[in-house]
Design a protein that fits this description.
Layout lengths: L3 E9 L5 E10 L2 E6 L9 E4 L3 E5 L1 E3 L18 H11 L5 H17 L2 E7 L2 H7 L2 E7 L7 H4 L2 H9 L6 E9 L5 H14 L3 E5 L3 H11 L3 H7 L7 E5 L5 H9 L3 E4 L1 H6 L7 H6 L3 E4 L4 H4 L4 H12 L3 H6 L3 H6 L16 E5 L5 H4 L6 E4 L2 E5 L2 E2 L4 H14 L1 H5 L12
Parallel strand pairs: 1-4, 1-5, 6-7, 7-8, 8-9, 9-10, 10-11, 11-12, 12-13
Antiparallel strand pairs: 1-2, 2-3, 5-14, 14-15, 15-16, 16-17
Helix pairs in contact: 2-3, 2-17
């Protein structure tokens, strides 16, 4: 990989200040040098960064790629009604449809400056996109995901064998109560043997807390502790009804929490107490959830919402979409711009020379692994116009299923 130089840009420093007049030399996908003085390497490609601030790219610690299909169609009055709708409708869509929807979701994520995601499935789409992913092999009691449940052990191993530098496989389980106690014992051993990440909705609703306790005989956190799954490989999602004692236990074991405040707000759900989680020293990430509920792929929008509603300094909220989720996903040397870091960089128009103004802008360029994935707000890694056309065709083909059908009972969360 050849050398690449960003000249005359400003840089967002780890303390959230902005330094101007910097030059960034990228070599072999890493930041080799950051300097005020000119860097003269004749063989290096050059990008004029004047008028831009270089920031760490954004990392989405909980992203449902397939749910963009339901944006504008699914009911948002309650989470239960949303899950019923999506669980029922997903049965009518093909794998080709799903691939198209995933690519559409990734288009919006990349345009928002996202260079890495943690979600379920989507391996092919993420590979094509050029960004990074920790992608969950799903295990849950759901008719729409039967193919993943049958022969889970062998199929998971097959998927892990396809892992690459940018794409890693984890285990994705909707909630503690979505599989049996026996399956949990088995999967806990698989996770341990293969050193895998686990992503799991925990304490999202009161009903989930009660359901899990009924099925496993104790609280979700206590159950996970018994299985030795409370550790830095676990990403707990939502956590709106976690108790103080549970938060202390989560902090004790360096377990991660991803919260999706815009999504929770749109579904009239209780917002997780992010401030309390921070006070306990928990590694908290902000995430979008699916675009049908979160409404946006922009982590800057989510960070701005969290900053305003939790009275968080913008610098803290910004870390929750950069260095914190990098830690959650095991992405070492990510989240700050410094020599030796991986060169995943956003370039954002410098209109106010402060973090507050940056959080109101949209990235113009996205660099992943030292290469432009988006340049001048046009995506290089995916055929943008074709995907938009194919996504509209998927919607049109299935419009009757999306709009008309009587409710039935739910069989699990969306995939």
């Amino acid at each position: 990989m050849s050398d690449f130089l960003i000249q005359n840009c400003s840089i967002l420093e780890p303390d959230a200040s902005i330094s101007s007049g910097k030059n960034i030399l990228i070599s072999n996908g890493k930041i080799k040098t950051i300097a005020v003085q000119p860097i003269d390497i004749p063989s290096a490609g050059v990008f004029d960064g004047l008028g831009f601030v270089a920031t760490p790219s954004f990392i989405n610690a909980h992203f449902h790629l397939g749910e963009t299909l339901f944006r504008g169609f699914a009911p948002l009055d309650t989470l239960d009604n949303y899950i019923r709708f999506t669980s029922r409708k997903l049965r009518y869509f093909t794998e080709s449809d799903y691939e198209t929807v995933c690519q559409k979701s990734l288009l919006e994520a990349i345009k928002s400056g996202t260079s890495a995601i943690m979600g379920a499935r989507g391996w092919s789409a993420v590979k094509k996109s050029g960004i990074r992913g920790v992608l969950g092999y799903p295990l849950m009691n759901s008719s729409k995901l039967t193919e993943f449940r049958e022969g889970f052990d062998d199929k998971l191993k097959e998927q892990i064998a396809k892992d690459s530098d940018k794409i890693k496989t984890c285990v994705w389980i909707h909630s503690v109560g979505s599989i049996s106690r026996e399956e949990w014992i088995k999967v806990a051993q698989i996770i341990k043997d293969n050193n895998l990440f686990l992503t799991l909705h925990v304490a999202e609703t009161k009903e989930q807390v009660v359901d899990s306790k009924t099925k496993v005989g104790c609280s979700e956190i206590e159950f996970l502790d018994r299985l030795n799954l409370l550790n830095d490989k676990l990403n707990i999602v939502h956590g709106a009804f976690l108790t103080d004692s549970e938060l202390k236990l989560i902090a004790k074991y360096n377990t991660n929490v991803a919260v999706c405040p815009l999504s929770s707000y749109s579904l009239n759900q209780k917002l997780p107490d992010i401030s309390k989680m921070v006070d306990y020293g928990i590694n908290v990430s902000l995430a979008t959830d699916g675009l049908a509920t979160g409404g946006t792929a922009s982590l800057l929008d989510v960070a701005s919402f969290a900053s305003a509603n939790y009275n968080l300094p913008n610098s803290v909220a910004f870390k929750m979409i950069t260095s914190n989720p990098a830690k959650t996903m095991g992405l070492n040397s990510f989240g700050d711009l410094k020599e030796g870091s991986i060169a995943d960089i956003c370039l954002i128009k410098n209109k106010g020379h402060c973090l507050d103004s940056l959080m109101r802008e949209k990235p113009s360029h996205l660099i992943v692994d030292g290469r432009f994935v988006m340049k001048n707000k046009r995506i290089n890694s995916l055929p943008e116009d074709i995907i938009e056309k194919e996504f509209k065709a998927v919607i049109q083909k299935n419009i009757e299923e999306l709009v008309f059908q009587k409710p039935t009972t739910s069989d699990g969360g969306p995939g």
